Amino acid sequence: MPRTNEQFKKIKDERKASILSAALYIFAQANGERVSIDQICSKANCSHGLVYHYFSNVDDVYSSLIKSDVIRELDQCLKIDKNVKAIESIYKIISKFEEVLSNSENVPFVLLFLNKNEFKSTLINLIKSGQKDKDVSSGNPEDIFKTCYYIYKGFCFDKLSKQNLKEKLPDKDVIFELFKRGKLLWQISCSFHQTFQEFIQNSLEV
Q1: For residues 72-99, average pLDDT
Q2: What single DSSP character describes residue 171?
Q3: Most buried pick, 62, 76, 122, 144, via CB within 10 A?
Q4: Whole-prediction pTM value?
């Protein structure tokens, strides 16, 4: 019995979803490195032709992933209300990360989001504003940003590499306190900055 149009559509949708699922993990673990069609095909166990049937190139695949509901939800917390104090906006972002990361399936999407330029620029600007208000720890805003960035990225990589589904993110209030502590914040930031690349490499080899 020939397949119906609905059945053909379902098959196509499933194939496209399978490619995107494979690509998501490749992009999430790429850590900023360029991703190739070869890598996506290998992970999805499909041909180049099938990928190009649904996507024009690697950038097209990435664009589809960035449009996910999880990343759109995270994007919302980057829309800053100028009438709200910077420190309160920082807490809002931290709270959203805790909410999103409570679901382990969202981990790869969070890794994609962390590498967005909008996330970095927004948080650094909030840190600078918070320092002017004397609510945020003094120091290089980029180093303070790195502290937050490496906490989330380290947690996500640990989840992906070890499949440790029971591990929980540190409480949002604990992370928030790091923005308000001077010496402790500086020490943590430097430590993460020096060791994180080695951690990623070791995690991916596990």
Answers
A1: 94
A2: P
A3: 144
A4: 0.80
For Cα atoms 175, 66, 85, give the angle at the middle one, nearest 5 degrees.
40
Q: What SS3 string covers 67-124?
A: CCHHHHHHHHCCCCCCCCCHHHHHHHHHHHHHHHHCCHHHHHHHHHHHCCHHHHHHHH
Residue from 16, 14, 24 nearest 55 by CA: 16
Query: What sign results for the dihedral spanned by CA atoms 185, 186, 190, 191?
Result: negative
Q: What is the pLDDT of residues 23-55, one digit of tens each?
A: 998 998 887 788 999 999 999 999 999 999 999
**Token pair listed for 58:** 């690697």
Amino acid (one-letter) located at 179: F
Q: Is the dihedral of CA 174, 170, 70, 200 positive or negative?
A: positive
Distance CA 161, CA 86 (A): 34
Residues 6+ apart with CB under 8 A from 71: 65, 109, 112, 113
If DSSP codes are grouped into helix, strand and coil, which group holds residue 128? helix
> Which two three-digit tokens encode residue 174?
């604990």
